[in-house]
Fold this sequence. Notes:
The protein has 7 helices and 11 strands. By secondary structure, it is of the alpha/beta class.
Amino acid sequence: RPEQVHYLRNVLRLSPGVELAVFNGCDGEWIARIDELGKERGSVIPDRKLREQTCAPDIWLLFAPIKRDAIDLVSEKASELGASRIWPVLTRHTDVARVNVERLRANALEAAEQSERLCVPTVEEPGDLPKILANWPAERPLIVCAEIGDAKPIADVIAGLPKGPVAILIGPEGGFARSELDMIVAKPFAHPARLGPRILRAETAAFAALTCWQALKGDWA
């Protein structure tokens, strides 16, 4: 990728012959030697394997897009916290009209490199909430962070779920519309969850929910 070549050549000021750690999301982490480093293209020669390939737990984060700095932070921290898929979701009260998915992917990739995870989360194109729910895989529980009906504390919700694929849904800053809440609670795979007594910003809610899941059922447990 040109931006990676630029970073190695112009920021780190590396040159052919230098060794560095590399990964491709499939074959583990390797020590490799820079073979070529041009203006837009480069190549490395793998030498020895440092770590076998591992992947983060299968947890998706779905969230209503928010303003630029905050949405960049979501993609970065969700990657650090081990999300396997990051998915902007358009709701009735979503304020942001356009999402720069390529920038989110770049943020997720950089965070994966810095946190030394060996797989990069998939960042999806934004999707409409009703369409996503209509095509939802029934075997994947969806933890919905919203004050819906008899929503339980998120720790209780997570504790009641089996280990395995799961997803977390964070609503927009203005909350879900009533019609959306009715649609969500009607889904058998949806599990409403409360995030405590304080009102959290959307990005804070995403980090809090991911942290709770990782601590109770993820690779922190």
